[in-house]
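Record type: monomer structure entry
Structure origin: computed from sequence
Chain ID: A
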Amino acid sequence: MGSLGQIVVQWPQEYTLKTNEPLAQDCVTFVCLSISGRLNPALLEEKHRELVKHWPVLGGDLVTNKTPYHMTTGSRVDFKYRTVEPKLKDVSPLDFKLTPAEFSGDKPLIRPYRTGDGILGMADLFFDTLSASNLAVGSLFAIRVTLLQDATILAFKFSHFFVDGEGCYDIIHHYNELLLGGELPKGVPPPGIEKKLSEMITGEDTGQVAAPEHGGWEYIRNWCQVGLAGFVRVIAQGIYQEYAVKLGLTEPGVEKHIYLPPKFIQGLQNSCQKEIDQLAKETGENFKLSKLDVVNAWWVKKIYSSSRESLFLSLGYALNFSNRIPKNFGEKYFQSHYIALYIPLGTVGEVKRESLAQLALKIRKHVTVAKQPSVVKDNLEFLESIQGQKIIPLPKGGESEGAPLFSSWNRFPFEKLQFGAALEPGSAPGLGKVLFNNSRIILPLNISWKPKVLFFNDSNGGMWCQCMQLSSYWRDFEDISEYGH
């Protein structure tokens, strides 16, 4: 039970939701912020306690022996910190520092992801909360702090079943507000305990929604496989791949980060939009391409430029629909509001013959349709019909090789958070800034889905693309300058 003034909020001891995302139920989301200067761990823990006291859902656990999964509320503060001797540049998996010429230039660049002795990987940064096999999610929310000579790494862990990317950002944002001396909005249990999300969708379609063809807008129904057999097969394939790589029987997945300077992104967007505007004179269709439309199209063309032309591509996309759910002003609850889209792009051969602008337009058209209330509702209703079942993000008859997953974390301005108020006493002015965001979603058994891209903003207006793909796919990026090569 929590309170705010005279208002008493009744919190359930255990609950589940009438609409859950099966894809997320066994996954963990990690948000890892590198911050300039050393933060005060006592203050960080104190504000963590305040956060849990105000929102008891943050003090609970994931209950996996019930179908669908349940969540508990509680008062547990899953917080730990430790101090290590080196500086950030010596232990960071990524050299994210850019020169003025690099972030103001018009060409992408690549930074390899470092591993090995002395480098702090996910298991190091999330000590005592990440199991070796990642089979037990445990607490819904945890904070791990690593104090370095010149910086602090703030590592936040979330059950992906509990919250989506927007929820992760909201919690961290409110935690940041507490550190700055701010107040929290009134916390309430999620409305999804009593009502299905499909029944909460508001608004009318603003565009035409034609009957779906070849998958069309029935994204989840046509572009995911439902059932334990497929799930077990994917897990088994993932385990095989891990051992096959160690034995040299198959190529490994390799993670690197691609930095796209603002000038490069703007150039892509301007040239593509010019072509689409010219096309609109003939078709009468007026579309404005977003930065992500053109970046996604650029990446797809790049990674599959040497693939066999018969390979069918289905771009995986997470669409947030929280703007379609009515909310009470001054209240805050945590519940995922996203659906997975699998946009049919056609074969590699077809994608090669399309211009970059045409491919970006295809993506934009699907996103526009997917945002229509009737489409969101249809997909949610199907999702609600398979609650508790295992599903995998793979088109029927498709191949994982042709089903890249994209996650647009650039929607969340982590780079603007300020932690200066939480610095150790005596710290120099100007510290407490977020230097880099190294977030990721971890699958059971630490299996890596390939290809996969997460997008993050940087403070200079550019974009980092965290890419995991087979080593052979990186050959198509050899024209991009790579640090250290």
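Annotation 1: The chain has one domain: 2-195+215-482.
Annotation 2: The mean pLDDT is 88.
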